[in-house]
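Title: Comparing notes on inverse folding

I've been comparing how different people in this forum approach sequence design from structure. To keep things fair, I'm posting one structure and asking everyone to reply with a full sequence. Here's the target:
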C-alpha cells in the first residue's frame, strides 16, 4: 500500500475518514482520564469547603460540646468507654435488635492473661433521654447459675450473706456516680429472664430495684441487658466478668475486665450533636466525623462504600477503560472511637487541611479534609469529611456511559450515513469505470457507449457525460479509420488498374529504350500500390471475419502437420522442422483464422531466416499451458521493440527488398487473432542469440 495519502484509492480514503471519526471517542476517553486528576483535586477542595461550612454551623451551637461529658484522660491508665446515643428506648429482652447499628463498636474483651482462652465478653453502652443501658454478649461454654449455700465467716466478712458467693457466673459493674461517689452493682444468673441487680448498701448485699436486668442464654453463651436509673451518668466505669466452669467451686477461675487496675473514663457525646450530624446530607462513599480536641469521636455519619452502579454493557466497557477499584474496601476507621491523622492534627493546630490517603498494596484511596471548630477563641474540636475516591470513578464511569450512549448513536449514525454514501459513490464510480473499460472490445474495436442514468447531477454525472461524449467521438473516428482502408482500396483499385493498363499499352507501343525503362519503373510502382491495397483489405477482412467466425474442436498437432507440409511444398528453398507431443492437443479454435495467423508467422520467419538453417515449429503442451513456438535463425530484435512490433502500422525491418511493401500489419493481425482465441503472443530472442522465437500461449483452464 502506498504511504502517500494522495495516492490512496477512494475507498481507502473514506475508510481513513471513518477511522478518524472513531478517534473522537478515544480522545474523549483519554481526556476523561486526565480529568480524573482534576476531579480528585476538586474533590479535596469541595470536601474542605464542606468541612468549613459544617464547622461554622457547629460553632454557632458550641453548647453541644459543653453539654458533652468529656473527661480528661491524659493521666488515665484505662481506655475510654463511649456512651453511644441510641435511636430509641431499649426493650430489655436479651436480644440486641436495638443495638444492631452499633455492633461494630462492641468491644470484645478476653480473659486476663489468657489470650488463647475462647471465652470473651462483648460490651456496649448506650443512652437515650438520660437513661444508660449496658449490653453484655458473653461467650461461655459452661454456664453456672447461682444457688444459695451456706458460706464461711471469712466470706461473710466480704459482704455479708451471699455477697461473697463466687461459685456462679458473676458480672460486677464498678463506677463513680454523678456525685463523685464510688458505686458497685452485682449481676448473677438465677434463671433466664429478668434478674435482680444487687448493690452493697451499709455493708450488706441488697437488691436495688432502680436497676433492671435481663438474662438470656445463647448457643455459645448468654446475653445480658442492664438499665441504669434515669439521670445516673457515671464519669468512670469498669465492668468485670467472673467465670466458673464447674459448680461448687469456691473461687472463680477466669476474669474478663474492661481494665486491669483502674476505672475506665466514660465519654458522653452530646445527643444533640449526634442528631445534627445524622441530618447532614452525605453522598454515597462519604463520611462525616465530629471530633473533640483529643481526636475522640463525638458523632459520625455515612459510609465509605461506593454507590452501587446499575450494570449495563457500557458499564463493562467503562470498567475496562478506567480499571475501577477492585481491591476490597479497607476501612480502618469504621469502628474507631479515637482518630489520629496528620490532617486532624493540622486542623486542630494549624487550620483547615486536606490530603489523599492510599492503602499499601491496594488501589483503595480516600480523600480527607478537616476544619477546626472554634468558639470564643477556643478550639472545641474538628469536623473531618472523608470520601472514597472510587466515587470519582463512579461519576467518571457514569459520565463515560452517558457519553458512550450519545457518541455511539452519533458515530453509528455518521458511520451509517458515510457507509451508505461511500457505497453509493463507489458503486457509481465502479459502474462508470466498467462502462469506460467496455468502450473497446477484446479485438480493439470501439463500441458505442451507453449513457448512464443521471440521478444526482453532480460531478460524477458530469464526468459520465464527458466520457460518453469522448467515447462517441472516438467511435466515429475509429469507425472512419476502419472503413478508410476498404474505401481507399475500392476507390484506388480502378484508377490503378487504368494506369497499369495504360502503362502496359505504352510499353508495347514505345520502342525507345529510355522510355521503356521509365515505364517499367512506373509498372513496379503500381504493383506496389496494388500490394498495399491488398494487404489493407486483408487486415480489414480479418476483423470482419472475427465477427462471423465459427469455433471447432481440432487437433493442433494434425493442423500444424498439414500447415507445415503446405509451406514446405511452397517454399522449397527453406527447411521446416515440426516438433509436437505424441498425444493429440485439442483446442477450440477458428481454423481459418488460425491458418491466417500461422501464415503471417511463418511468412515472417521465412523473410528473416537464413537459408542454411531451418524454421522450427514447436508445439508444447503441459498441465497449465499450451505453447506454439515459431523460431528462426537470423537478426535479433532490440529489447525495446519486442512489444512494439505487434502494434498496428509498426515495422522495424530493413528495406531488404524494395519490391515488397511492408505496412507493419502482419504481426498486428497475429496479435488480433491470438487475443480472439484467448491467447497471448510474444516475441523473444533466442537464449544463444542466434535468432528469434515467436510464441502463442494458451492458458489451460
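Reply #1:
Here's my take.
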Amino acid at each position: 500500500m502506498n504511504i502517500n495519502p494522495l495516492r490512496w484509492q477512494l475507498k481507502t480514503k473514506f475508510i481513513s475518514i471513518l477511522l478518524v471519526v472513531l478517534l473522537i471517542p478515544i480522545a474523549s476517553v483519554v481526556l476523561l482520564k486526565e480529568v480524573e486528576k482534576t476531579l480528585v483535586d476538586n474533590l479535596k477542595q469541595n470536601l474542605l469547603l464542606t468541612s468549613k461550612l459544617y464547622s461554622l454551623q457547629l460553632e454557632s451551637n458550641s453548647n453541644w460540646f459543653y453539654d458533652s461529658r468529656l473527661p480528661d484522660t491524659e493521666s488515665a491508665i484505662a481506655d475510654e468507654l463511649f456512651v453511644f446515643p441510641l435511636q430509641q428506648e431499649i426493650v430489655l429482652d436479651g436480644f440486641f435488635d436495638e443495638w444492631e447499628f452499633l455492633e461494630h463498636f462492641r468491644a470484645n474483651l478476653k480473659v486476663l492473661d489468657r489470650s488463647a482462652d475462647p471465652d470473651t465478653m462483648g460490651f456496649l453502652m448506650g443512652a437515650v433521654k438520660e437513661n444508660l443501658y449496658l449490653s453484655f454478649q458473653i461467650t461461655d461454654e459452661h454456664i453456672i447459675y447461682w444457688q444459695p449455700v451456706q458460706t464461711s465467716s471469712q466470706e461473710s466478712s466480704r459482704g455479708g450473706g451471699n455477697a461473697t458467693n463466687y461459685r456462679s457466673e458473676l458480672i460486677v459493674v464498678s463506677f463513680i456516680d454523678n456525685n463523685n461517689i464510688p458505686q458497685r452493682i452485682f449481676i448473677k444468673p438465677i434463671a433466664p429472664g429478668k434478674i435482680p441487680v444487687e448493690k452493697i448498701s451499709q455493708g450488706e448485699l441488697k437488691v436495688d430495684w432502680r436497676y433492671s436486668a435481663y438474662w438470656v442464654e445463647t448457643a455459645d453463651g448468654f446475653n445480658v441487658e442492664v438499665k441504669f436509673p434515669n439521670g445516673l451518668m457515671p464519669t468512670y466505669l469498669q465492668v468485670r466478668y467472673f467465670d466458673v466452669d464447674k459448680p461448687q467451686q469456691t473461687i472463680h477461675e477466669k476474669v474478663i475486665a474492661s481494665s486491669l487496675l483502674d476505672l475506665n473514663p466514660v465519654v458522653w457525646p452530646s445527643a444533640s450533636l449526634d442528631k445534627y450530624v445524622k441530618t447532614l446530607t452525605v453522598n454515597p462513599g462519604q463520611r462525616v466525623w465530629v471530633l473533640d480536641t483529643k481526636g475522640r469521636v463525638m458523632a459520625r455519619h455515612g459510609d465509605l462504600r461506593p454507590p452501587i452502579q446499575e450494570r449495563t454493557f457500557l458499564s463493562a466497557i467503562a470498567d475496562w477503560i478506567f480499571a475501577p477499584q477492585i481491591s476490597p474496601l479497607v476501612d480502618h476507621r469504621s469502628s474507631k472511637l479515637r482518630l489520629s491523622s496528620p490532617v486532624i492534627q493540622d486542623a486542630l493546630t494549624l487550620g483547615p487541611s486536606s490530603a489523599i490517603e492510599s492503602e499499601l498494596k491496594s488501589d483503595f484511596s480516600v480523600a480527607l479534609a478537616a476544619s477546626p471548630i472554634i468558639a470564643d477563641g477556643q478550639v472545641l474540636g474538628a469536623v473531618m469529611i472523608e470520601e472514597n475516591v472510587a466515587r470519582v470513578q463512579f461519576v467518571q464511569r457514569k459520565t463515560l456511559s452517558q457519553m458512550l450512549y450519545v457518541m455511539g448513536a452519533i458515530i453509528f449514525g455518521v458511520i451509517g450515513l458515510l457507509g451508505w454514501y461511500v457505497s453509493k459513490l463507489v458503486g457509481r464510480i465502479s459502474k462508470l469505470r466498467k462502462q469506460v473499460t467496455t468502450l473497446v472490445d477484446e479485438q480493439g474495436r470501439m463500441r458505442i457507449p451507453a449513457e448512464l442514468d443521471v440521478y444526482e447531477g453532480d460531478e460524477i454525472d458530469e464526468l459520465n457525460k464527458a466520457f460518453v461524449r469522448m467515447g462517441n467521438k472516438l467511435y466515429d473516428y475509429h469507425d472512419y479509420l476502419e472503413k478508410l482502408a476498404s474505401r481507399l482500396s475500392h476507390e484506388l483499385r480502378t484508377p490503378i488498374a487504368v494506369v497499369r493498363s495504360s502503362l502496359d499499352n505504352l510499353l508495347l507501343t514505345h520502342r525507345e529504350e529510355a522510355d521503356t525503362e521509365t515505364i517499367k519503373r512506373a509498372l513496379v510502382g503500381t504493383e506496389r500500390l496494388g500490394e498495399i491495397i491488398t494487404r489493407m483489405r486483408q487486415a480489414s477482412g480479418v476483423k470482419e471475419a472475427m465477427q462471423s467466425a465459427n469455433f471447432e474442436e481440432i487437433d493442433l498437432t494434425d493442423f500444424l502437420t498439414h500447415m507445415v507440409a503446405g509451406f514446405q511444398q511452397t517454399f522449397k528453398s527453406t527447411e521446416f522442422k515440426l516438433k509436437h507431443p505424441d498425444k493429440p492437443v485439442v483446442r477450440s479454435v477458428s481454423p481459418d483464422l488460425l491458418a491466417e495467423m500461422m501464415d503471417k508467422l511463418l511468412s515472417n520467419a521465412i523473410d528473416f531466416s537464413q537459408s542454411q538453417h531451418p524454421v522450427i515449429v514447436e508445439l508444447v503442451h503441459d498441465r497449465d499451458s499450451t505453447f506454439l513456438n515459431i523460431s528462426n535463425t537470423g537478426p535479433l530484435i532490440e529489447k525495446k521493440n519486442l512489444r512494439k512490433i505487434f502494434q498496428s502500422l509498426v515495422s522495424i525491418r530493413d528495406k531488404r527488398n524494395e519490391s515488397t511493401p511492408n505496412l507493419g500489419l502482419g504481426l498486428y493481425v497475429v496479435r488480433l487473432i491470438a487475443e480472439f482465441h484467448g491467447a497471448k503472443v510474444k516475441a523473444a530472442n533466442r537464449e544463444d542469440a542466434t535468432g528469434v522465437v515467436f510464441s502463442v500461449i494458451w492458458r489451460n483452464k
